[in-house]
TrEMBL record:
List of residues binding substrate: D34, R58, G79, R135
Cross-referenced Gene3D superfamilies: P-loop containing nucleotide triphosphate hydrolases (3.40.50.300)
Cofactor note: Binds 1 Mg(2+) ion per subunit.
GO cellular component, one term: cytosol
Pfam families the UniProt entry points to: SKI
Co-factor(s): Mg(2+)
Species of origin: Psychrobacillus insolitus
Protein name: Shikimate kinase
Biological pathway: Metabolic intermediate biosynthesis; chorismate biosynthesis; chorismate from D-erythrose 4-phosphate and phosphoenolpyruvate: step 5/7
Amino acid sequence: MMYKVYLIGFMGCGKSAIGRRLSYLLKMPYYDMDKEIVKIQKRTIPEIFEQEGEEYFRNVETEFLQNFRNESCIISTGGGVAMNEENVQIMRDTGLVLYLDATFHDIWMRIKNDLNRPIVQNSTKGELEQLYKHRKRFYKKAKHITIFTENRTLKQITEYAGYQVNRLKGE
Ligand SMILES: Nc1ncnc2c1ncn2[C@@H]1O[C@H](COP(=O)(O)OP(=O)(O)O)[C@@H](O)[C@H]1O
Ligand SMILES: O=C(O)C1=C[C@@H](OP(=O)(O)O)[C@@H](O)[C@H](O)C1
Ligand SMILES: [Mg+2]
């Protein structure tokens, strides 16, 4: 049976870090949407934002989900993917959606100096906190399972995610 595991949540919540580790734990192939999009587009995420604008990037994300191969795998989404209703529909129809819930404090410490996230580059801390609050309800609505990450190591979160995937697959 085809079964995808999608990781959603705000920038810096650990989607990419956990996705890679979960793939290793569950022996399932792993794809990071941002990395796949960079390969297809042959340019970086900041370059895509700068040259084409955010709306274009959002369309590329939806096309990726629509066309991605039929295979059991782990997919780390980008932080904006769960904001779009069609994206959420595709994810829920083709697999299990895990929301990595992190505090804004943790997130800010992790992303504030990252040059590869254009939204961080173009926003103040206050604006990002507003965006975090705004997006939270979308993640909650899109998810099957919430995973709280505060005060947990990557290993602990990965093991808990693996437990949930094993528990819920085939349902
Ligand atoms: N629970 C955690 N404990 C320690 N470091 C973490 C944790 N979650 C994420 N990180 C680190 O924070 C950074 C951002 O995580 P990343 O996986 O890129 O987030 P996302 O893909 O959700 O934007 C990475 O360096 C990652 O290793
Ligand atoms: O939250 C967002 O809108 C974005 C998150 C990024 O992915 P991460 O969540 O892995 O940082 C990346 O897709 C792009 O910079 C836009
Ligand atoms: Mg990521």
